[in-house]
């Protein structure tokens, strides 16, 4: 079972697709995966200053690297 951070979906998550994917990854991915849900990010843009946003999931694996997923539908 994958390690989920946080342990449960954020209470404000309204997307049923996102909730289903959270539960599927939690149950089906092996133990060496870490799945971050609702990840906020910030970058420094030289033209417009700081920019920020959020991605639905960031999956991390020690051998395969990271995968960022934005859920649609």
Can you tell me about this structure?
Helix content is 18%, strand content 45%. The chain is globular. A four-stranded mixed β-sheet has the order 1-2-3-4, covered by helices on one side. By secondary structure, it is of the alpha+beta class. It has one domain. The model has no long low-confidence stretch (mean pLDDT 94). The protein is built from one helix and four strands; from the N terminus they run E-H-E-E-E.
Summarize the topology.
Blueprint: E1 3-5, H1 16-28, E2 34-45, E3 49-61, E4 65-69
Parallel strand pairs: 1-2
Antiparallel strand pairs: 2-3, 3-4
Short key terms for the protein model shown above:
73 residues, alpha+beta, four-stranded mixed sheet, 1 helix, 4 strands, globular
Structure at a glance:
This protein is an alpha+beta fold. The protein has one helix and four strands.
């Amino acid at each position: 079972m994958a390690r989920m951070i946080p342990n449960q979906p954020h209470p404000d998550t309204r997307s049923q697709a996102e909730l289903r994917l959270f539960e599927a990854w939690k149950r089906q991915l092996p133990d060496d995966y870490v799945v971050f849900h609702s990840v906020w990010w910030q970058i420094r843009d030289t033209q417009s200053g700081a920019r920020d946003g959020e991605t639905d999931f960031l999956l991390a694996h020690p051998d395969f690297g990271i995968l960022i997923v934005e859920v649609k539908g």
